[in-house]
Recover the amino acids of this structure.
C-alpha cells in the first residue's frame, strides 16, 4: 500500500533540504579556504607585495596579474616554499629577494587560491 500523499511530500522535502545543506556546506568550505588564504597572505606576503597584491616599492613586485601567479599552481607553491635569492632574483629593481615560507599543503592551497583571485 502506498503512503499517503502528505508523507510522500515530506520525504521529497527532506531530500531537498539535505541537498541544499550539502551544497551550502560545499560553498562555505570554498569560501573558508579563500578567507584563510587572505589571512595568510595578509600576515606573510602583504608586507612586501601590498595588501591588494599591487606591489611595494623596493620590497616586492605586484602579484595581481603577474605571469607567475597566472601560471601553474605547483610552480607558485614551489616558489613560496623555496623563495628567491642571489642569482635567482627575477626582478633586479627589488634587490631584497624573497624569503622562503614553511606552510602546510592546506595553507599553500589557500594562498594560491587567494593569489589566483587577485
Amino acid at each position: 500500500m502506498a503512503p499517503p500523499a502528505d508523507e510522500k511530500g515530506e520525504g521529497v522535502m527532506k531530500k531537498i533540504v539535505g541537498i541544499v545543506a550539502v551544497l551550502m556546506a560545499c560553498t562555505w568550505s570554498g569560501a573558508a579556504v579563500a578567507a584563510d588564504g587572505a589571512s595568510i597572505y595578509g600576515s606573510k606576503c602583504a608586507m612586501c607585495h601590498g595588501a591588494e597584491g599591487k606591489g611595494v616599492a623596493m620590497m616586492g613586485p605586484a602579484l595581481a596579474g603577474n605571469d607567475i601567479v597566472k601560471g601553474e599552481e605547483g610552480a607558485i607553491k614551489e616558489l613560496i616554499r623555496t623563495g628567491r635569492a642571489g642569482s635567482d632574483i627575477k626582478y633586479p629593481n627589488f634587490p631584497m629577494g624573497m624569503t622562503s615560507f614553511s606552510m602546510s599543503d592546506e595553507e599553500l592551497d589557500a594562498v594560491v587560491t587567494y593569489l589566483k583571485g587577485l
Observations:
- The chain is about 60% helix and 0% strand.
